[in-house]
Amino acid sequence: MKYIVITIFLLITYPYLSAQQIPLPSNLPQAHPRLMTTPGYKPTLEKQLKEDIWAKEVMQGILDRINPYVERTQTEPDWLYSRLMMYWKSKATQVYINGGVYSHADGEAPVPTVRFGSTRGVSSPFSRPKIEDIVPYMDDTKGVYFRNTSKESSPLEWVDQSNVSGGSIESVNEEIMRIAKDAAFVYWITGDEKYAKFAFDLFNTYMMGMHYRTEPVDLGNGHAQTLAGMSTFEVIQERILNELAYLYDFIYPYIQAKHSDKTDIYAITFKKWIDISIKNGVPHNNWNLHKSKFILKVAMVLEDNRTYADGKGREYYIDYILNKTSARQWSLTDFMKYGYDYDTGIWNECPGYAQGVTKDLTNFIRDYDNTFNQNLLPYIPVMVEAVKVLPQYLFPNNQITAFGDTYYGGLHTEAMSDMVRIAQKYGDKENEILFTKMYKLFEPNAVQQGTPEKLAPQVASFFTSKPLALDKNIEKGKPGDYITQTFYAPNVSWFVQRNKYDDKQNSLMISQYASYGNHAHSNGVAMELYGKGHILGAESGIGSTYFEKPYLEYYSQFPAHNTVMVDGISKYPEMLSNHPFDLLSCYPESNQKEGYYKNITFSDVYFLEPESRSDQNRLLSIVSTGEATGYYVDIFRSKKQRNGDKFHDYFYHNLGQELFIQNIKGENLNLQPSEEMAFAGGHLFALDYMWDKKSAKTNEDYQAVWKMSFPDGNHIYMNLWMKGYPNREIFSIKAPACKAFRNNNDFPYEVNKSPYLTIAARQYGEAWNRPFVSVFEPATEKEGKSIRSIESFNVNDASPDFVGLVVNNKSGRTDYIFSSVKDEMVVYNNMAVNGTYAVISEKGNDFTLFLGNGTLVGGKGFKIEAAEKVNAVLEYKNGEYYFTCDKPVTIKTEKGKQINKDKTTYQKIKL
């Protein structure tokens, strides 16, 4: 009976437990401003402007930017507002679009109305002029006078609006409203009404024009109808709402005193606008957050519910984004439960978007708290993990991994500083210490007091970005506090391996990923490789906007990635994708910080390539052979489930100005021009983006060398050895430029304009029993390669998919590598293995037995056996034994001694 009562209680209370409501803030401020600051803070700011150098510098920067415009309008009042992008003469009310392209506008309002955008993110030679070059009162419902950048001196020319570079029209209005916002702030802090009038004329012209505008209509009644906002093709691009809300908040006293008859119109316009933002969009990715930010800012400057006949005031909208879920706008908690992995803290989008979402969320929490004095963190505690995990995205050169729609670049440290501010305000010492240590480690400009040397000359610098006072007694953290040797994020299908990750020059790192979550590419099981201070096997990038052919046909597709394509047809939806790999085994355990053997890591994954219905298995490993040396192992098996394999193509792209493809003797292969790798034959368009294709057929082992030449003569190389098989053809290819780096500052050549030098290995027939077996070693000119030779070995009676390698190092070390898919014992030269992966190393009297996901490894007079699959390492060095295992094993010596070991962290033992 007791269990029945408990069950009934849980059934009754579960909906409330699973859908916790965030309470609305109490004592909502009634005065304006209230969004970025409050009237009560004004004396503090006035004091800072008199006494603090940083505040004076920020203020002067703002005045220097806006005063030329303000002074110009003293004699020409319409000089600036006449340059707004409006339907000045036609006064059109209804905008029509064809999907992501502007069509036309009709209808007539009593006042000029706001012009809609041109396209959804498609670039063109026609771009916006500077403000001073804009034709005043420019109006044509079909076109504009913009700069034609394809011609010398970029003359102003009339162009159909649909041919203007995407976002250009909106950016003019955003820039002008940003100037108006700054002027409104200056009015608030100084009381000088010339700034108020300047800001009001701009605000009123725009808002009255938007008041008479209606929701755009998609002529095809397609997906675009559910995305469009009032001013642009995507509700998440309504950035102008931020400027309008801040502007209105700062000049509200002026409007009440001089133009009180307009406040109802402004409220109606604001509410219509954010109602459409709620109605349209996408709830299951970063869009939900971007919309919420805009909605919240507008909601904050509205009055209470009771002020409006429809009862929809600020409480209504604040509660909506915090607690309500509708078709295209989810509550904050529902949105975060969908997107975040509460165990890892990883957001389910590519790294660039993911760390942006985390930063935007901490900004949201910070701004909300600044306005309402209400801390949202207790209601969304995953944010602590979400900020803590950010460093896991880093390569050893402090650039984030760039899978999916991501650029290489630094870590966003603003989320860390936001967490410090919140912790300080609410006396949370634990979080203050955690995030202060992080911030001091990863923010290059953090000085002793934690203040960047210069704050940007913008209004936010006085409030949300004002100097951060860091506790001087808290030391900066260490990389190992936040970055682990392996890390797995299942909600984006990403696994990373690192070795010596605190050594920028000599560390190794593999970033491996499939396609799961948002802003993913159609890339199968792909990888990035790091070496000698650079991401050498880099992602190709985005290449263009998401709506243009270079992205759709090449950069988001298999051949642009370091992966394997089947029959020339491997493809599935990019962007929001649902094609993860299965992590079968790995070492060490994800996120493990201590107690493991550090010199070898591995991962073994399975992937179903859906287009060709192919099974794919990729084993990747890092083997460290010394303080400055090591190499990568890549064994990629691929086969169609229903046979009929035509061919499998292994692609690898690497930075460098030169690529040499050679036999094992170092002689260049006799590569001949080839058109075999092409769209012709029913293959992907992506193959026709590549050029200068040359190939040679060989069943012998071969190698490729990429050379990145530096002026100082210490060139960087990536050395690739690959095992030969019958029916193998090797291609040298020039691929479209790597666009994943925003600039070429770290490189001796123009990476983003140069061909991306690529090797493709084509295996005719299946590639499961004749897999792509590769060993990569990065090296420098001065140090040279550490590997002397690599060869493969076969084992009698082993399954045909077995791979055996012998890697001989110049140091005298020899590594024997075993890789199996089948559960079977293989024996070679007095060594025995039953496992997914094993490395048996010897150098003089020292040796290592490494077993990955297996039940047996034997050699050097020892045998490790387990009843179930285990990761285990026995190391002998300098006359002493070291051991670790993650499940119970038995160690047997050649003299018959048996030692039983339970799960054991890496430690010295006696045998």
Helices, strands, pairings?
Blueprint lengths: L1 H17 L23 H10 L1 H23 L10 E2 L6 E5 L2 E6 L6 E2 L11 E2 L15 E6 L7 E5 L7 H23 L2 H19 L5 E2 L21 H19 L4 H17 L6 H16 L12 H10 L8 H8 L11 H22 L9 H7 L25 H12 L3 H14 L43 E4 L4 E6 L8 E6 L1 E6 L5 E6 L2 E4 L11 H7 L8 E3 L8 E5 L2 E6 L12 E10 L4 E11 L5 E11 L6 E7 L4 E6 L8 E2 L17 E7 L4 E7 L7 E7 L5 E8 L20 E9 L2 E14 L6 E7 L9 E7 L4 E6 L6 E3 L2 E13 L2 E14 L2 E16 L2 E6 L3 E5 L4 E4 L2 E6 L2
Parallel strand pairs: 2-8
Antiparallel strand pairs: 1-4, 2-3, 5-6, 6-7, 9-10, 10-11, 11-13, 12-16, 13-14, 15-21, 17-18, 18-19, 19-20, 20-29, 21-28, 22-25, 23-24, 24-27, 25-26, 26-29, 27-28, 30-31, 31-32, 32-34, 33-34, 34-35, 35-36, 36-37, 36-38, 37-40, 38-39
Helix pairs in contact: 2-3, 3-4, 4-5, 4-6, 5-6, 5-7, 6-8, 7-8, 8-9, 8-11, 11-13, 13-14
